[in-house]
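quick one
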Amino acid sequence: MIDCIFCKIVAGSIPASIVGETERSLAFRDVSPRQPLHILVVPKDHHANVADLSLNDPESLVDLMQLGSRLANELTTGHFRFTFNTGEFAGQTVFHAHGHITSNQPVTS
Ligand code: 5GP
Ligand code: ZN
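structure w/ guanosine-5'-monophosphate:
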């Protein structure tokens, strides 16, 4: 989608610190980390939020969860949060579905 920052990261037209990917999903470090480990996991296709993704492309949601969980288990001691802000008044600021993986116990940050 034009003017979507995460679509631009997926396309490679703006840089990001990529930590993993599958055919359907991409994981990269949050530009403003709020914990020692803070990565974002996004579907490569544009969906406005996780609720839309769950309805419109559930296989991509499963793929996103599996990629995020695998990376979280590699990058932490196994204790992490995996959260999805959904809607402006829940704190969503980028309207391309994404999960936040945060941990204060990274193995590597
Ligand atoms: P939200 O507030 O929508 O749940 O999360 C959006 C997240 O995207 C924020 O944590 C913010 O720091 C991150 N973010 C915004 N713009 C960029 C960017 O250009 N690159 C990266 N890597 N993260 C971004
Ligand atoms: Zn997008």
